[in-house]
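Pilot study result, target chain (372 residues):
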Amino acid sequence: MPKVGKHIYKRKDGRWEGRYVTGYVNGRAKYGSVYASTCKEAREKLDKANREIERKQAPIIKAGKVSEISACWLAEASSDLKESSVIKYQNMLRLYILPEFGECELSDINNESLINFVNMLRTAGGVKHQGLAPSTVSEIVTTMNQLRLYALKRDFSVRYTTECVSVKQSKPDIRVFSIAEEQRLIDYLKKNMDLTALGILVCLYTGIRVGELCALKWTEIDLTEKVMRIGRTMQRLRVNGKERKTEVKILEPKSKHSIRTIPLPDVLVRLLKEHYKKDAFLLTGDKDRFIEPRVMQNRFKRILKKCGIEDANFHATRHTFATRCVELNFDIKSLSEILGHASVTITMNKYVHPSMELKAENMNKFSGLFGE
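Predicted structure:
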């Protein structure tokens, strides 16, 4: 049996064997083996086996109770996280994780514990025990993984991995207005022009989010340069220690890429000039009074009903804007930056939905390709 490297041999049957020490009995070493078709593969398997032995023999350092370790994690992470993210993690802990594991030692939670917990959330989670939505379960699992990573960085013993659970989320139906629906909506808004109608038109012509619209002030719109600067968004967030459970806050956008300058089309500039009011919120014409996203959402749905257009969420304006841009052969890189995306891939996969008319037009290009 020729030897190649330390503890690696080529067997008579052509396979490669790597041997490693599993432990000692009465002072004598006990060995285990790994097998592979190549020397390189055997060496990789041997290294993995040795690392596993070292991990099992390492002293166990307890992490502490989940309630304690989660408080330490959030206290340290808060300076790097957005306020909305901190509140989300607090909610996942308070509502789901701490009631189940709060008094448990983090190092005692294993994969089976996590699998049983996730299965319970899916089938009986929630106030009415009706089972939680996959998106909520996914956020809870993400929070458990953040606790795990925090503990591992401090060399604490952690026995579970979130890779043992899989939360499948069905993609939501994407609503894009047809050209006929969008034309009907725009006609209605122009005939019934007020600040709400103006706000909806701004979204149809620029693709900004409803939270960005609600936070938008005239100081961020330059009608001379024909640009609009997006640097804030509005959200209703849960607050702790106050009489009111939630509070509307104006914050930085979801990512640095969402801070952007958007060129305004002339048709929108003309409409904006008619309603300009210095320093005020665009949707109210008032410096101190604003309209929050859920109010704008309700107004939008009432307008769709009056137009005889099938129900849709306000976000459909953003999907529709992106789709129209693709139909008009926009440069995708430019569109991605206008939408505030980190990459072109996000724009293509999430927001671009070619209409059946555009697909048919592209398919018909085959008709004259071969002279038929």
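One observation from the pilot: The domain at 66-164 is CATH 1.10.150.130 (DNA polymerase; domain 1). A full batch analysis is planned for the follow-on phase.
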